C-alpha cells in the first residue's frame, strides 16, 4: 500500500458528510439519487448519505501518495469517484458543515483532481432508522489522479 497520512474520528455527521474545498459561500450540492445509496458527485463535491439520520459513525480518511491495492473484504459497499480541488483545501464536512475534531487537516496536498474510494460498513442495516441499530464505519481513501 502507498504511504499515507491518516486522520480518524467518530461523531454524528447528522445524516451525511461531504468532501469538498472549504467553501467561500453556500455550496451548490450535486443532485442526490432517489435512494441516496451511491455518493452524489459533480466533480467539485462528493455527498455521502449515512444510514440513519442520527448516530455515531467512525470515519478514517487516508491521503495516499498513489493508488492503494483494492480492499473490499470486510466492507459492505465500495464506491469510486473523483473530486477536484481548486484551492488544495479539500476537507471532510459533516451534515452541519463542521469538521470532526480528528479530521481537521486538508485531504489533499495541493490543487488538482483526486480519486476517492469510499468503503462503507453498517450503513445498509441502519437505513430507515432514526438512530443507528449497528456500528457504521467509513474508510475514505484519496490520491491524486494521474
Word description of this protein:
By secondary structure, the protein is mainly beta. The protein has a single domain, classed as Sandwich (Substrate Binding Domain Of DNAk, Chain A, domain 1). Helix content is 3%, strand content 42%. The strands form two sheets. It has a five-stranded mixed sheet with strand order 1-5-9-8-6, with no helix packed on it. Strand 3 (40-41) and strand 4 (45-49) form a beta hairpin. The model has no long low-confidence stretch (mean pLDDT 91).
Give short descriptive properties of this protein.
4-stranded antiparallel β-sheet, globular, 9 strands, 146 residues, 5-stranded mixed β-sheet, Substrate Binding Domain Of DNAk, Chain A, domain 1, mainly beta
Question: How does the SSE layout of this entry go?
Answer:
Blueprint: E1 4-11, E2 16-21, E3 40-41, E4 45-49, E5 57-64, E6 77-85, E7 90-94, E8 112-121, H1 123-126, E9 137-144
Distance between the termini: 17 Å
Major beta sheet, specifics? 5 strands, mixed
What's the quaternary structure here? Answer: single chain
Q: Determine the mean pLDDT.
A: 91
Counting DSSP E segments of at least 2 residues, the number of strands comes to: 9
Structural class: mainly beta
Question: In total, how many domains does the architecture comprise?
Answer: 1
Strand order of the largest sheet: 1-5-9-8-6
Shape: globular
What is the C-alpha radius of gyration, as a whole number of Å?
Answer: 14 Å
Amino acid at each position: 500500500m502507498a504511504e499515507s497520512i491518516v486522520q480518524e474520528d467518530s461523531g454524528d455527521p447528522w445524516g451525511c458528510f461531504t468532501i469538498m474545498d472549504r467553501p467561500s459561500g453556500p455550496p451548490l450540492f450535486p443532485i442526490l439519487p432517489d435512494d441516496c445509496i451511491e455518493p452524489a458527485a459533480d466533480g467539485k463535491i462528493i455527498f455521502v448519505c449515512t444510514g440513519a439520520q442520527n448516530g455515531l459513525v467512525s470515519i478514517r480518511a487516508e491521503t495516499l501518495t498513489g493508488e492503494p491495492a483494492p480492499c473490499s473484504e470486510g466492507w459492505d459497499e465500495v464506491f469510486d469517484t473523483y473530486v477536484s480541488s481548486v484551492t488544495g483545501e479539500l476537507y471532510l464536512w459533516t451534515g452541519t458543515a463542521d469538521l470532526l475534531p480528528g479530521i481537521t487537516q486538508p485531504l489533499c496536498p495541493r490543487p488538482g483532481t483526486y480519486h476517492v474510494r469510499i468503503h462503507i460498513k453498517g450503513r445498509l442495516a441502519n437505513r430507515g432508522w432514526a438512530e443507528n441499530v449497528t456500528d457504521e464505519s467509513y474508510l475514505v481513501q484519496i490520491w491524486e489522479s494521474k
